[in-house]
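Q: Okay, next protein. This is Flagellar biosynthetic protein FliQ from Acidimangrovimonas pyrenivorans. I've checked the sequence twice, so it should be correct. Can you predict the 3D structure?
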Amino acid sequence: MSQADVYTILNQAILTVLIASGPILALALLVGLGIAFFQALTQIQEMTLTFVPKIVAIFLGLLATTPFIYATLTKLSDHVFDLIMHGGP
């Protein structure tokens, strides 16, 4: 296995992590922006108002996107295990 092969596998792993975590991070960003706009408009500066809706949204998002995350990670692990089984690309 050459350095280029290792670089390719690491590149695929990083891309897989970004793709798998993207929907949850985007959801947290959107909920955070919505809460920030709400706080700016109403001038309510309650600390629990920022955390509780974000946590609930993240948990609901995880429930909704778990099959997608599982499929993405399974695809990468199958590819890596195939490379291990065959001794390289």
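A: Here is a summary of the prediction. The mean pLDDT is 91. The CA atoms of residues 5 and 89 lie 7 Å apart.
Q: Noted. On to the next one.
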